[in-house]
Amino acid sequence: MSNVPAAFATTLHIRDNCLCLQAQRAARALSRRFDEAFRPYGITSGQFSLMNGLNRPEPPTIGAVASLLAMDRSTVTANLKPLERAGLVTIAVDAEDRRGRRVGLTVAGRDLLARATPVWISEHAAIEAELPADADALRAGLRAVA
């Protein structure tokens, strides 16, 4: 193994062209922006996304939510705990598979989601207006690698 560091020009090329780095930076910036927008509602952008993943006619399994959010089950479970303590979600044994859990929004959770969604719509529209490129093309590109 060589102790010779990569050329600085290579480092600059990676900094300016790495899709992973740019996606991570953008995700952090978007999270901070939405976190601030949702602060008056007492939730984070991640919690808003998680609650949206639970907003279904029937309570989904933790595995289904994990798949939707591209997270592992243990991370979803950990992220559900504060929402459960706040009375926004319920976690129950799956009647079809007692080893599993189903998660649903409570009335308070649905109410909070309904109040926070217009904030998301407004903030999202503002972000799309700031983009130098077509937002639909960006979404398509992100879905292609997800």
From TrEMBL:
PANTHER family: TRANSCRIPTIONAL REGULATOR, MARR FAMILY (PTHR33164), TRANSCRIPTIONAL REPRESSOR PROTEIN-RELATED (PTHR33164:SF105). Pfam families: MarR_2 (PF12802). Residues 16-146 form the HTH marR-type domain. InterPro entries: HTH_MarR-typ, MarR/SlyA-like, WH-like_DNA-bd_sf, WH_DNA-bd_sf. It comes from the Bacteria. This is MarR family winged helix-turn-helix transcriptional regulator.
